[in-house]
Amino acid sequence: MKKIFSLFKLFASQKHMITIFFLGIASGLPLPLSSSTLKLWFSDTTDTSIATIGLLGLVSVPYTLKFLWAPLMDRWVPPFLGRRRGWMLIFQLALIFAIASFAFLSPETEVQQIAMVAVMVAFCSASLDIATDAYRTEILRPDERAMGNAMGVNGYRIAMLISGGLALVIADFWSWSALFLTMAFMMLIGVIATFLGPQPARDHLAPGTLRECLVEPMKDFAQNKRWFFLLVFIVLYKVGDAFAASLTQTFLNREIQVSVSEIGVLVKVMGLLGTLVGTTIGALWIPRLGWFRSLWVFGVAQALSNLIYWNLLWLGKNHWLLAADIFIENMASGMSTPAILGLIMSLCNPKYTAFQFALLTSVGAIGRVFSEPLAGIVVHHWGWEAYFICSFLLAIPALLMLLGLKDTIKKVTQQSHFLGR
After folding, report:
1. Higher pLDDT residue, 106 or 365?
2. What angle do CA 217, 339, 14 make, to 5 degrees?
3. Could you tell me which residues come within 8 angstroms of residue 380 by beta carbon, excluding any fewer than 6 positions away?
């Protein structure tokens, strides 16, 4: 009986971590549906060129612009569930409708309509990220950030396995329409988590005016004399990784002749396992290494892993080699993610969390969104070898900047505005 009671107390004490995990799933489900799964849908059902498929990455532009409307989500509070949970619910319901709409469209004859729905999915998904990121930042204490970010990332990647992996098996054996309807239904996970999640301690600290939402967060951030270099570093830290990931599925499908169902099972499952291991390693080692050394060690591993798929060009399709490549690449990327998110959290003020976190993550997403069209152009003109070399070279500038920001990063990660729940 005592053991059962102890387990119950442990579960209750980790309620916020469990909520973060399931909200990570809700945030991760829509992303592949407006990026990799969307591109594979066109690749599998039409003869669209690789360059054009690469241009579909522009659909994700709302992820880089979400800071433009994030102040509105700091300023106005929905009449239910509070400032953060209320906005999460609104955009989760909108995503259910938008994702289901894909099921009734054809990529052969309704390209414009699909693009419009994809932009709507990206906009609502980016808005959900604004609310979810602010919520996660505000309910985590500083000493919980590494593990809390790992929980969110793991939930996010499980969702990407579902909507970018399991969903592809549904598309291959049933239909693409069945895929989208299933994903719309899965969004209910986030709705339930939103209702059951704890309320942030400072959820009531809404700015008094819209002008305050826009001006004061910038003044607060600019108090750090090296703010510009921090922004540039956040942009560059993941750009090589984003470039490498942008056309990986197309590379495997067209160049290595990996089928859609194989991508759905092998690529996504091993990618998830690699990420789970990587984020767990990151969460456990960040407190030991410190934020600066974590960013450096994990950043170097991330850069080297961008070259991992090159061996498939020489050896061809090999399931064991492919599984190992996917695991290593995703493990390296997973280790670095809690580190960069922890840095971003450290730069936010709870009164303006939505705007500041959205601004910083939007800046970070610039590399991902605009690297996709660039990746298509590189492959089209110079081939896949140049694509992987570029992915490695793009990771180097961030590592060089990191050395110059050593003292600044140590200082900001030791400070905190947050009290947690």
Report:
1. 106
2. 90
3. 49, 50, 51, 54
Closest CA to 154 of 294, 306, 277: 277
Residue labelled with tokens 């799933």: 25
Angstrom distance (rounded) from CA 145 to CA 347: 13
* Among candidate residues 329, 20, 62, the one with its CA nearest the CA of residue 159: 20
Distances (CA, A) of 266 to 260, 305, 322: 10, 18, 8
Could you tell me the pLDDT band of residue 49, with boundaries at 50, 70 and 90? low
Instruction: Please name the residues in contact with 197: beta carbons below 8 A apart, sequence gap of 6 or more.
Output: 15, 16, 19, 23, 85, 135, 139
- The pTM of the whole model exceeds 0.90: no
For the domain with range 16-413, which CATH number is right: 2.60.40.10, 1.10.1760.20, 1.20.1250.20, 2.60.120.260? Answer: 1.20.1250.20
What confidence tens digit (pLDDT) does each residue in 150-165 have? Answer: 888 888 878 877 887 7
Q: How many CB atoms lie within 10 A of CB 8?
A: 10
Q: What is the DSSP letter of 247?
A: T
Taking only the tens place, the pLDDT of each residue in 60-118 is 778 778 888 888 888 888 888 888 899 999 999 999 999 999 888 877 777 778 888 98
Closest CA to 39 of 373, 270, 351: 373
Separation between Cα atoms, residue 30 and residue 7, nearest integer Å: 34
CA distance 130 to 119: 16
Domain map (residue ranges) of the chain: 16-413
CB 378 within 8 A of CB 387: yes
pLDDT at 33: 83
Amino acid at 77: V
Least confident of 46-60, 100-114, 126-140, 392-406: 46-60
